[in-house]
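ENTRY TYPE: paired fold submission
RECORD: A
CONTENT: sequence, then structure tokens
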Amino acid sequence: MYPILGYQSSHPIILPNPMSKRGDRRKHLLDLFRQIRAEAGLRQVDLAKKLRRPQSFVSKYESGERRLDLLELQQVCTALHISVTEFVKRFEGEEP
């Protein structure tokens, strides 16, 4: 029963979970980071060297433990020979 609305229903109301969609997009982003690095033929350690960062830096943003700001994303994209614009196009165009 929904006392506030004043009626009973035998059918539960199931609303879409916005967190689920956000989780899907986050997984898609993390997968895209790994995919673009693999396409460039680089291991995490190779990319880390290009970025002058420890391998853990790459591991943490690829696993979602760390988020990149725009300047860091630009550095990663430059090291992978892809523009930020192309990265975003791929993110938007390959939605799950």
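RECORD: B
CONTENT: sequence, then structure tokens
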Amino acid sequence: MRKVDDRIFNTRIPDSSSGNKAEILHLLRERVKELTALHSAARILQDDEKPLPAVFRQILDLLPPAWQYPEITAARIRFGGAVYFTAGFRRSPWSQKAAFRTGDGKKGDIEIRYLHETRAEAEGPFLSEERYLINSLAEMLGSYAERKAARGALLRARDELELRVLKRTAELERLNRTLLAEIAERKKKERKIRAYQEKLRRMTAELALAEERERRDLAAELHERLGHNLALVKMKLATAAPKPPGDWLAHLEEAIKATRNLIFELGSPVLYELGFEAAVESLAEQFREKHGIEVIVDGCGRIGIADDSMKLLLFKAVRELLHNAAKHSGAAEIRITLSHRAGVGAVRVADNGCGFKPRPVSSAGGGFGLFSIKERLGRFGGHIRITSGKKGTVVTLEVPAKGKNKNGNKNPAVRRP
């Protein structure tokens, strides 16, 4: 609010020694009326909640009593196209006016009119103090109207912001519901995919077991028929008279050896008859003879696995790793370590070959490759770890020795044919 014109308070009061006490009392009463109007207007203009028209009407009620001749005084306030006036306001040649303007360009004014002629004063019939009073009131109204407009703009901005927030919140809630529905649908599809993958893994495992049974049946058939017959022919040739040429026996020995290797490749009877550890020893001996690579099975550690399907899985994995090492690493020595600790059976296959740069086992290769080993181990809750460098490669296979697999099912046993 602008400063009230202090000239209202600086009016000269005549010296009482002049004897004009009536004039002194009149001037004092006028000053009191003016100060009362200013004080009342300031109090009214402190209320920011009241509508502007009501405030202007209250200010109008203060104006006539504040002037020298209230009984013939009428007042009018104009602002922003609206007009407010006291009863009896009409055209008159005796007018006093003060204009005001707000920061946003709106104009207004206060006008006081005497309805009858009176004696002449400083400004027509109006006192100089009345000029100071009307100017101060105009400044006060201008400040109030500007503050009121700013507050209204602030409230409108707040309401608009709240409305935008409500709309945005509703939109976000709608999007959130849509997203939740999409997530639920995606989870549903993911569950279906996992169910299909699990079904595929079971079918793959069952197919592998069925294939293994067929291979073992074929190996048994070769052993029973071809193997025995070749052995019998060898015995008869060795005791025949006259003796056959020496190269016959050599060829026959090669055929017997090839038959044994074929039988072993098709299905190791040692695995089911003597156990996993013995089968790994037999596999190491075969590789030493076939590839000329020193294959060492460390100590007499036991892997602690009773389940035939897991034994078969690990045996085929070890055989695949030995084939990979013989084919790609150029190793002179391969060391196989069997261990069992804290319910976990582990097979560690380490070679001293050239090594390679390990990559994530995430895509299927050919045959019973690393991806296949990882997938089949995963079915039983196991996993594979690979480290490789200039000093060779180490592959560790781990499976739970007892209990259930990661799907909560008991590890399936292989039915022997």
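NOTES ON RECORD B: Residues 72 and 173 are 67 Å apart (CA to CA). Residues 363-367, 403-417 have pLDDT under 50 and may be disordered.
STATUS: closed
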